[in-house]
């Protein structure tokens, strides 16, 4: 049974053990220093004193968040996304607050909401989209909320929290985080709306804010799949899709003071064109041999381009270093990308990308060896029987020639700790 209202919660924030657990989570997540310049390691050096200080300030109601440091990260399309970095101290308070109130809202959240929730994931959302498409929901309302995190209405958000929590001290603390000053290159500003991306509690507040939307859409019988502010609705017919497009837009604007992005929101027939969701593309194609439609999905072109840009950055051809050092730097990227996209139709793509990455590593190793004599010595040592042709050690063309492949073969890569996208995918699929 879900409890209707919670009245006395603030005292739970004052538990030293809760604060200690909250810091452990903050430490595990890492992150840059906030406006005070204090690192997580520095906070940890005086952990007892720092946590006791937080406890005392919360108890005396003298706690007030520091300004949030604003930075901008590249979205990959020429645009910048603002990111807020709270101080370590504020992250601990946000984390303990999240730990206390999240269990209250989790039971009322709907299954269509997958983002930043315990036991939910992007993979679950992606698989649900695939299932809906297979069931014939082929018309897709592919919508984007314009500047969602920056346009959340503070009053409506507090009202949404207050529907379950009547503890004024908790509501006041949330209000302080929403109104925390923001420090960027232009000085200090006090936000009138929004919740900064980067705050520990921001994803939970974002889910609370959009819960009314989830409820309204599902009660109307729509197949909604939402991950934070990314969402799509799937219908069987074009007419139903058009009605939803209009209805969802009106509801967001009138009830939640949010706007759908006019250029990024559209109605798509997945049988005729692909659409993107959570970095994946989806498309239905007719299998004439089987006489039915199949759903294919995998990393979008944008996701592939961003991945290749990261690989190029790590494997710059003008560096002189060992293959092992490069592979060690690549491993987290390769594992992370393969784990996320490995559930899609990627067998051929992963094989091609593995070959491309290997070639870049071979090029770096050639350049690092510098002297062609090194190449000749290795060839003789490995028992090369063919003619040895002198090659340029800095030529991209030569990084794929036969003798280079003979020297830097699969066994050589394994000896240097190589982990391929294909290997990671096979573990996922097994």
What do you see in this structure?
The protein has 430 residues and is of the alpha+beta class. Helices cover 49% and strands 14% of the residues. The protein is built from 17 helices and eleven strands. The strands form three sheets. The chain has a four-stranded mixed sheet, with no helix packed on it. A four-stranded antiparallel sheet has the order 6-7-3-8, sandwiched between helices. It has a three-stranded antiparallel sheet with strand order 9-10-11. Helix 9 (202-219) crosses helix 10 (238-256), helix 12 (323-341) runs antiparallel to helix 13 and helix 12 (323-341) runs parallel beside helix 17 (421-429). The model has no long low-confidence stretch (mean pLDDT 92).
């Amino acid at each position: 049974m879900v409890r209707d209202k919670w009245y006395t919660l603030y005292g739970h924030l004052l538990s030293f053990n809760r604060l200690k657990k909250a810091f452990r989570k903050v430490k595990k997540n890492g992150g840059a220093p906030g406006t005070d310049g204090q690192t997580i390691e520095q906070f940890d050096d005086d952990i007892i004193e720092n946590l006791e200080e937080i406890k005392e300030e919360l108890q005396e109601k003298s706690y007030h968040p520091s300004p949030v440091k604003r930075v901008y990260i590249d979205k990959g399309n020429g645009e910048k996304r603002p990111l807020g970095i709270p101080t370590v101290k504020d992250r601990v308070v946000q984390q303990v607050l999240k730990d206390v109130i999240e269990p209250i809202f989790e039971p009322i959240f709907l299954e269509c909401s997958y983002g930043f929730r315990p036991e939910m994931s992007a993979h679950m959302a992606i698989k649900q989209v695939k299932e809906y498409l297979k069931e014939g929901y082929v018309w897709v309302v592919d919508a984007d909320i314009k500047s969602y995190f920056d346009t959340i209405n503070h009053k409506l958000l507090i009202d949404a929290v207050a529907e379950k929590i009547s503890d004024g001290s908790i509501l006041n603390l949330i209000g302080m985080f929403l109104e925390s000053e923001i420090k960027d290159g232009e000085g200090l500003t006090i936000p009138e709306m929004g919740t900064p991306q980067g705050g520990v509690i921001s994803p939970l507040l974002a889910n609370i804010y959009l819960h009314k939307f989830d409820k309204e859409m599902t009660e109307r019988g729509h197949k909604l799949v939402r991950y934070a502010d990314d969402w799509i609705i799937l219908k069987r017919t074009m007419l139903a899709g058009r009605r939803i497009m209009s209805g969802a837009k009106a509801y967001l604007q009138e009830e939640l003071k949010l706007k759908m992005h006019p250029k990024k929101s559209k109605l798509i027939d997945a049988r005729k064109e692909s659409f993107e969701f959570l970095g994946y593309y989806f498309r239905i194609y007719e299998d004439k041999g089987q006489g039915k439609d199949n759903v294919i999905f995998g990393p979008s072109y944008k996701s592939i381009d961003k991945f290749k840009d990261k690989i190029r950055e790590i494997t710059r051809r003008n560096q002189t270093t060992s293959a092992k050092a490069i592979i060690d730097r690549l491993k987290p990227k390769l594992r992370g990308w393969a784990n996320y996209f490995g559930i899609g139709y990627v067998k051929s793509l992963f094989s091609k990308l593995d070959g491309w990455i290997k070639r870049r590593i071979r090029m770096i190793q050639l350049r690092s060896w510098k002297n062609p004599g090194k190449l000749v010595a290795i060839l003789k040592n490995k028992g090369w029987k063919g003619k040895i042709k002198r090659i340029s050690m800095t030529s991209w063309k030569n990084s794929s020639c036969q003798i280079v492949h003979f020297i830097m073969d699969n066994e050589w890569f394994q000896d240097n700790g190589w982990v391929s996208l294909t290997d990671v995918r096979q573990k996922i699929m097994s």
